[in-house]
Amino acid sequence: MINVLEDSGDIPEFVEWVRRNRSALGCDTETTGLDWWADDFRLRLVQFGNHDESYVLPVELSDELLGAAVGAIRFVNKLIFQNGSYDLLVLDATTDLTMEEIWPKVLDTKILAHLVDSRGEADAGIGHSLASLTKHYIDDGVAAKIKGSMAEIARSLKTTKARVWKLVAWNHGGYLTYSGLDPILAFRLGRILIPKLPRTVYRKTDIGPGIPPMNLIEFEHKVAEICALMSRPGIALNRDYALRLEARLALEEHRWTARAQELGCENPWSTEQCADAFEARGITVFDTTPTGNRKVDKVFLADWRARGDELAEAIYQAKAARKKRNTWLRSFLESVDSNGRIHPSINSIQARTARQSIQGIPAQTLPSGDYEIRACFEANEGHIVLSTDYSNMELRFLAAHSGDKRMLRAFRNGEDLHQVTATAAGVSRKLGKMTNFLIVFGGGPEALSSQAGIPVHEAKRIMDIFMETYPGVEAFMKLKTQEARRQGYVTTPSGRRLYVEKKFAFRGTNYFVQSGSRDITCRALVRLHHAHLAQFALLPIHDEILFSVPIEHADTAAKMTDELMKETVLGLEIPTDPDRGGKSWGSLYMKGVENLTKLDDYYRDNPEQALADDRRRNPDDHAAAA
């Protein structure tokens, strides 16, 4: 049953119901959109539900109804949300509630669902959205109603699904049904999912000195809380720089497109026209798609750019300029708030291995080494950026758990593992590094062949030598493959169960290493939070955390983050490498004192620091110059 409070006269009935259900209630919010930071954003409804009954409070109507909702949130012992990070950011932004106050009483069914089965629907799993969980565990028809009701309302109001949240009347019957169902479903899912959790998630893990050990449920909720706290203040966007960069990239796109046209490719975004233009230049060997179409992808373009082909260069540069403008810069400029900040959505538990993902700021997908896009984002006033990342985290994690003697010796003696692999196989260090990471991330000879541009038989030879060089790793990979094939899953040291389809059992090692490494970064977040340093964190980026720290305390902050983040796994230390930068995130990727002082405000005013930082990052360049 769905009850709707229409005015303050209905509040006593709601209060009495809340008193009877104080131990736990499902909770949800409805708003004008997803942009909780926007000036015109509004909280419209707050809903509460138990197993079969809900109350919908249209808080936009009066302060009394808003007060009743806030009072209920404070009164109830356990609040069950589906994807609670968003709702808590909403409540923090629109009421006098704070996330610090609410998070300790939250149970998030999205987190529970991920711990039951980390696979998404595309991976043959249940999925983690409210609709997919309802479909699997409760009722297929109700799930379809959830998925389609707001789209149907949007059609009836002749608007888009993005705008319907602002335009639909609070008392629209379909809207109230949709809203009233959500907390009931969250409550039911909480009760359904808890008994399905593997027993291993209750295993306590040591986080760090002074922090009580946590089981995986507690740990994931704490990580979600810390990531939401990072989203709240957002990151400063240098809007003037972003606009100048957008204008310059528009000119570059036009110039390179014109050059591609001069070389016979009228439309660089048409794969067919690109392929025809290359064939006209005598290049006739292409990889093909499963349907037989010729590929002109980044691997193809990189190969021919390296050979000095002008058309490959023109197509690559035109595409790169357009992607930077359309995929990134335009999004930044459209989503910046009135204070000049962008609020990233940090999905704390995502992917099959629980690796995080970030929307709003593409921190995890930006090209390696590119400073231009990163330079859009700046440290806070009076601060500089600091990046602290792990050194060979996945490979060290693999070495520790496999117990391979050669790999352990390399790390403990400070040897260059990529060179060790390269020397054993008689190849370049670059190819040795590529081999190391491909193996740890589950790639085979075909992948190495494609990425390195070498024959498959040569790639297989290199990988065979890897296994001969590190026999402990080979044995460990076989063990994890057998475990995945026998059980259908592997279990990480933190107790996370990762399902692996038996035909892909060979990926068991990859999942184990990726997920275990992810947990190291997340334990570091908890330690930083406990030490009151997470307030300076801007983003977690796989094996790196980006900070904004006061200039006068930058060196101290570097030492503290290093000490708090590094971790020892089965006797092998996984160290970190702190790197203080300038005003912009991009300054960490700029090379040369001239560039640093020209392109970054902090370094322009502090050229001696620019020299010191560039010398530290690029010692070989300075040694050669000397």
UniProtKB/TrEMBL annotation:
Region (Disordered): 607-626
3'-5' exonuclease domain location: 2-186
Domain of life according to the entry: Bacteria
GO biological process: DNA-templated DNA replication; double-strand break repair
Pfam families xref list: DNA_pol_A, DNA_pol_A_exo1
GO MF term set: 3'-5' exonuclease activity; DNA binding; DNA-directed DNA polymerase activity
Domain DNA-directed DNA polymerase family A palm positions: 370-553
InterPro entries, per database record: 3'-5'_exonuclease_dom, DNA-dir_DNA_pol_A_palm_dom, DNA/RNA_pol_sf, DNA_polymerase_A, RNaseH-like_sf, RNaseH_sf
Entry similarity comment: Belongs to the DNA polymerase type-A family.
Name this polypeptide is given: DNA polymerase I
